[in-house]
Design brief:
- With about 130 residues, the chain is an alpha+beta fold.
- The protein folds into 2 domains: about 100 residues, GMP Synthetase, Chain A, domain 3, CATH 3.30.300; about 30 residues, no CATH class.
- The protein contains 5 helices and 3 strands, in the order αββααβαα.
- The radius of gyration is 19 Å and the shape is flat.
- The two termini are about 30 Å apart.
């Protein structure tokens, strides 16, 4: 089902504010060398739940940063509610997920360019089939 205009607008608003809050919290905690971005926010049709997909670079810090974000979810929700109090009546419940789409794309590119190229070597297709 396609998102409505309202869902898209709220998702964009939440995405912008979430990115700002998460980057500020990383800066305040003294963690340097970690880049965090909110790649997508999907809001349910009743606007009660928002799923935020977060990209973290370098990827070796993904698990600990997501764990830290989930531990501070209530504080993040409160700050989001303060920022969006004039646009939203009720702040949706937030859930955070690691966005691994860039790694997935990178894996596809490596398999095409690397030695496991199924186009150049059709024998590899038999290995990839699910039994």
């Amino acid at each position: 089902m396609e998102e409505t205009n309202r869902q898209k607008k709220i998702g964009g608003l939440l995405q912008k504010d979430l990115a700002d809050i998460l980057q500020n919290s990383l800066r305040e905690s003294g963690r340097t060398g970690i880049l965090i971005s909110v790649s997508k926010v999907r809001v349910t049709t009743d606007l009660s739940i928002a799923k935020a997909y977060v990209s973290i670079f370098p990827s070796k810090h993904q698990e600990e940063v997501i764990k830290e974000i989930n531990e501070n979810k209530s504080q993040i929700k409160h700050e989001m509610a303060q920022r969006t109090r004039h646009q939203l009546r009720k702040m949706p419940d937030l859930s955070f997920y690691v966005d691994d789409s860039l790694e997935y794309i990178d894996g596809i590119e490596k398999s095409i360019k690397g030695k496991e190229d199924p186009v150049a070597n059709p024998d590899l297709l038999d290995k990839r089939k699910k039994s």
